Amino acid sequence: MSxxxxxxxxxxxxxxxxxxxxxxxxxxxxxxxxxxxxxxxxVAVGDAGTIQTSVNGVDWVLRExxxxxxxFDVVYANDGFMAVGxxxxxxxxxxxxxxxxxxxxxxxxxxxxxxxxxxxxxYTGRPPFYETTVYSSADGNNWVQAQVQSPGxxxxxxxxxxxxxxxVAxxxxxxxxxxxxxxxxxNWDWLPTTIGLAISDIIYADxxxVAVGSVDDNNxxxxxxxxxDGTNWVQRQWEATxxxxxxxxxxxxxVAxxxxxxxxxxxxxxxxxxxxxxxxSxxxxxxxTFVGVGDGILTSTxxxxxxxxxxxxxxxxxxxxxxxxxxVAVGxxxxxxxxxxLTSADGANWVQRQVGSTNGFSAVTYGNDHxVAVGGWxxxxxSPGTIFTSTDATNWVQRSEGTTNWLNAVTxxxxxxVAVGGxxxxxxxxxxxxxxxILTSTxAVNWTQRPVGSTNSLYxxxxxxxxxVAVGGxxxxxxxxxSTILTxxxxxNWVQRQxxxxxxxxxxxxxxxxxVAxxDENIIVTSPxxxxxxxxxxxxxxYLRxxxxxxxEFVGVGIFYGGNASIITSNDGTNWIPHQSGxxxxxxxxxxxxxHxVAVGxxxxxxxxxxxxxxxxxxxxGGGSLxxxxxxxxxxxxxxxxxxxxxxxxxxxxxxxxxxxxxxLDTSPLTSDHVYYRAYSQ
Length: 682
Known about the structure:
By secondary structure, this protein is mainly β. The chain is built from no helices and 62 strands.
């Protein structure tokens, strides 16, 4: 009798769980780009297809959008919300909670949207697609490309607004003012007026246009201009000179936000400035409250005094591990010396922990009932190395490690911890030079420095197949270099190995009987033993920074050349599949636990993959019943079913496991030559 597991997926009808990544931190989600008010609520949009709603501007609900594309703008008009973004994305909602994707007819980035003269109008124009193209719709469902008499060179459109009978767009290269939409909303007469300024935002209120920005696209000095007709503009003066990024109107008052300042005006002409430590990138008014989004959530009743809500650490996250039933992510903020340690039992809800030190962390691992985080001092300079340990991920103790070098990575295997590094401030490469450093410990408390035999820095270490493998090399400074590979069976005595890599190896993991290492921009090498390595192979156009293995899959993460997160996966380490996350920040660490991969990166970014479910079967001695092993996230409801013809399915059991792997016995008689099993979450 042959037995086959036919289906393994998260939910019937759902795609690959590694195609589905959910933004878990910061929350409210960072990189919010626009906010609008309507129908009694605020709606904010941003990276990774993020849409959040709030009635009061303080308590926010994350909504399902069905897209991972970044959203750049949102508007409330004609009894509904419309949002636009990357890849020609258009989303519509009547209530802000349930969203439907519309077909725009373009794959270019839609940068801005407005409503006027009974028409929605959306613009392209954000980099890398600077083509200024207009799309128009009478109902928000059916979109057509408008015919526009070109105003000249393409513009990087930021915002668009309708007022006084015309649409006016704000662009990096200035103000673009267009004529009234025609009767069909398709053919436009374009009467451009260009002001050589970098405009970030524009509104129409109280009978006038108000636009804010800077004299160029490099932050300062700021600019504030007004116009009655959208063609003739007047520059207004105020005391401060920082760049302005957003403007709104409500309760008889204009409010403009900028770098470290908030400006207010009752008439658009006379403005007063107030210094502040925050600068919302978008502002809206509703229900008696101004709401600013971007660097957290801000609210104000008068536009002058603001309250911060649910902000996140400014630090980047570089490492993550899973152990003892929880994830631990670590990092630091190099601009303002401080550490970052966050913990989560489920990968979704995170708590920031305090260490009582300004030391930064680059990596973390779990073993022997201990979490171990390594890194170094970030003030006054990046030195020396540092090690902190914890048994519960909440209370941390600093250990004496005896090295002046920054520590980049740590792993556990064969009953001991191994930490590697080599960061030396003032090195010719700018601080990422050698010599290499290796420390070992059997108890996570007492550490011993080991001979390295290499003058190159070490950036990563892994354990598998009875071997520790540490990798590094000469600085990855864009002009090439040499890779370094060291192997050891005990963590004490190390042997240098060779591979075909021509630059520093930056990450390594072990799984499925082999080591997989990444180096420089987008190159991967593999080895079954750490000694013999494959020829380098190029993958996607990205800088790959970290790799992990779990549930039969390698997952590599990094950053695309354009700045967005990069995720690639492979079940054999050789053939790789790229995946979209929608995150605008680069990723620097990844780990597997409780049926999910979790990736971390810049700006405190945390992404959680979909649930990975596997089902394995083991016939019992003597035949008869079968033992089924189900692996997947705990706390979820699963159904295990069987069939003899792949058409009719009967339920073996419904379970909600408390452990990552649960064994279930199928006691039903096997009455067919072929029996098929499937498992799915409900």
